[in-house]
Amino acid sequence: MNVYSKLALFAGGALFGSAGIKLLSSKDAKNVYTHTTAAVLRMKECVMDTVSTVQENAADILASAKDINEQRAAKEEAAACGEEKTAAGEETQEQV
To answer: What is the pTM of this model?
Structure first.
């Protein structure tokens, strides 16, 4: 590439950049930015509501799982106590 083509590309880029800045700072562009930001905030609120619902459901599931494990542990403990009583009863019968 020769010097003139590089210079032309630089000038074109500078012109395009200046026009882009002017376009981005226009009143219409600001209006678009405002509406886009409002839509993002509405979306954020919707997502946060969904997250809150999921957290509540997860808490309910966790509580139910803990209850199930407690009931299971109680049954296993009751079964272990019953086996100990049976084994103790067999020992006393053997001693007689």
So the answer is: 0.48
